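Homework-ish question, so no full write-ups if that breaks the rules, but can someone show me the predicted structure for this set?
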Amino acid sequence: MIRVNDVHKSYTKETETIKGVSFEIGKGTIFGLLGPNGAGKTTLMQIIATLMKPTSGTVEIGGMTPEKDLLKIHRLIGFLTTEIKLDPVSTPNDLFDFFADLYDIPKEEIKQRKEKAFERFGITPFAKRRISELSTGMKQKISIAISLLHEPPIIIFDEPTNGLDILTSRQVTDYLKELRSEGRCILLSTHIFSVAEELCDEVAILVDGKIVAQGTVEELIKLSGEKSFEDAFFKIYVENHKEEK
Amino acid sequence: MSNGNRKIWFRGARAIAASFFKKHGQMGAQAPGSTFLISIGFVAVLSLMVLSWFWWWFPYHLFSDEVYDVVVVNAPQSFIDYNQYMQKYRDMKARDYGSRTDWLSNWGHMSFFKYNYDGYGWTKFIYKENSALYDFVTFGKWMRENDAYLTVVFPEGFDESVSARTKDHTLPKPDILTYYRTNSIEYTSMKNDFIDEYLHGYQDYMREQNGWAYSNVVDSRIIDDPMDFSNTEEGHSAIGDTLGRTFAPLLLFIVVLYASMSAGTNVIAGQKELGTFTGILMTPVPRSAIIAGNLLGVTLKTLIPSFLFAIPFIIVPYYWKHGALIYLIVHIIILAIFISAMTIFISVINDTVVSAQTAFLPVFLILISVCVTCIQNATEREPFYLYLPVYGQFYGIGDALAGHAEIPGLIACSFATLALAFVVVLISEKLLHNERYTVSIDPVTAKEIKNARTGKNTVMDVADKITDTFVFTVRETIYPLMILGFCQMIAIVPMVINYMGRAEYSQFIADLKSVTTVTDIMKKTFEVIGIFMGNPIFLALMTVAYVLMITACVIRTKVVFHKKDYKEAFATAGLPLSKPGKVIRDYLIGLVFGFLMMSSVCLILKLTGQIEFTGLGFSKDLIPVFLINMLMWFPQGASEEVLFRGYMIPRLETRYKRAFAVFFSSLLFSVFHSLNAGYTPLASVNLLLIAVLFALIYLKTGNIWMTCAMHTAWNLSQGNVYGLDVSGNVAHAALINTSHSAGAKDVVTGGAFGPEGGLAVTAVTLVCMVIVIVLLVRSRNLARNKDA
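A: Not a homework solution, just the prediction itself:
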């Protein structure tokens, strides 16, 4: 569903943030992008989500390229980050209706989908409250409900559990598993190992804009010869990260 | 575009436009308070400049060194004679200088501050001798020394050469040279005026004195009263023209610009600032639909205040001619679309609301400058200006308001403007495909910056907090003022326009010239409003204005307190409707109490011999005025209560302690009455006390029904029952005629302000206040005992 082919990205002439990344993700998989802050995870996610154009290389989503079929791709992807992106003076109800219009959901389906999504995350009692009055966890749940209201087959999720309490992050991981079982293709970035270990079918470790290791969690542990995934990550990181002078 | 794409284009654009009118406000970050403050200051300065054009009242001497004098070199005897002969005309002009008539006939020459040279009225002539006709260095020195702007140089022996030429036409004409100072562009037109009017007059004078024949029409100008403008009908038309062509379009431009800026910079730039824009970009809605939807939303949001501000000008029936209203509406709509396109463009290229508003400021200034050039060139405009964007709208709005309208100008200008707006929109759409303008900042970096800021309580944070509180307070002070001002303007503008056409008006202006202090000016103004107070139409308009005021307050309550519906908004504004029985009971009690309070004030005044009742003052003719006046007091009392108590106290309580909220709102209540006639320090204290008393009653009862009724009963009985002045306003129809006794002391009676400026009211208010405080403390103790 997602095919990333030798993507480079540089913001300035001197430095390259993404230095040639390629991978492929199929249906019903959760693909984890692991890396420390500043490795280029967010940039890569934004490129895949068509928000940025790569300096060179291509991104294919569902067999389409953003240059040609940008809006069709938008119907296929749901893009989420923990950076709360909801209008604080609005209400979950209004926002859902607003985005349902923008995603061109048939009018008669909106109510049904809203009820289902709000029920699923326990938003219903807060549906008419202002976003700014709600807790971080609730905001994240609303954000998920709204970003996925068009039921996209591809989900791009930047730091899904960052800054959430245990209960909410548990709900989020459960939901992601549920989405996988429905056959969706999920790309998520994280720096939390437990999340990666628990969720991801495949993991890629991104260091300084390059994928230095890729495979299942077990494969990576085996490859590094360490006991835990965390240790494996550190070993791989230290081997590949060059200290800047 | 395929069918599905077209469908989502329209649906997306419509949804975005509709989001501007959502219950919970539009999407996007709100502008910070400091921007609001700066904008208010900016608009205030501009408004002052605009108002200064109505220069008959503006103290120009504060801003200009009045330079009117003329140096005359080698003045011949005939010119000195002419100056003496003209003295009476010049005196007349000097007397009229700054009068309405003069202003009416000269409005076309307006420019900032000292704009209107009256030709020669105040000119003093400084006579000098110099044999060198081209010695501009010396002439310049003389002009600077004598504060003159012009030097007129006669050749030596001028009179002789002229009379010689009457006998022999082959002789050369003697030339009169003029030199003028160039440090102000006005001097050029002043020089031209001087030559056109004064020197041509001199030529005529010479002919008359010497019995020469008039050579041609141009040279035979009649100098009699060239500036006189006594015809009332024409005067009326000129005032309409002036309002319609200068003040009104400029005001509309400012409103359109400001409204468009506040709506337009909030959306895309504000959404980028909040991070909500990514969500919209990720939807399958095309970028062009995003731009179109925002443009539609901003335009509609701009049009609401624009039409609202156009109402006071439109309702004056004078403008309602030749379908000009339609032209006005079209011009406003096209202008709003263009300005909104500009704000959208600026919003697209900026990442935060502040940067977008800062970027908009030059546009604001440029467009205002265009307005100013339009006003300056109003009389000599080239026809093609009508077809240009912005210029065309300014002149078009002016023409429409003055009752003229041209279809070709409207169409050409509208097309040109729309084309320009379309180009701007196209560029914005193209930019929206560029990640530089869509993905504003890496969220990790943004978060780090934010954490660094909130982690420590830096000096900047404290300063921000103080500014924030300050801005909140100022805003909450300004909003009631704006609501008050705007609503009362609706009632007062038609009356003032009507009054200007009357004979009393000239007397009013003449009297104004003799007054010097602000107090005197206010006194004069209230004399006029006093005249209006006897006019049933004015009273009816005021009634409407007060109802509007209450509506505005409730709407604002609904918005700022985020209430679901108007029922809740009414309740929050202190007017709960849920228990009609209690409402009626409270209201009746209030009416009785208000009446009793005022009656006790009158009783005190009567017993102490301060006032005398001079019999029943009721006559048949006064019935309509009396009834409408009575009717007016009901919304009048309620509007002030809802403004200063029901809305303001809970609003201030969101930031301050209750005591401060009560004190501050009461202080504002008192200060807002300070413009009324006869205002004294004691009156301010009394009004403060009354306001605190009402606030306490509001806190005791939990609603303002009782205080509304008290306020109404107080004013009604004061003005229309006991015939006393109400906060400096004279009530015209009273049941009882009352007059101050010979030995009455203003300290007790309050003088021209009415009893509210005297000690009698202080006493009654204090007694009532003690009672209410006792009741409050008792109910609080009761509640505490219940809890225990």
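Now go work out the reasoning yourself. Hint: The CA atoms of residues 56 and 513 of chain B lie 9 Å apart.
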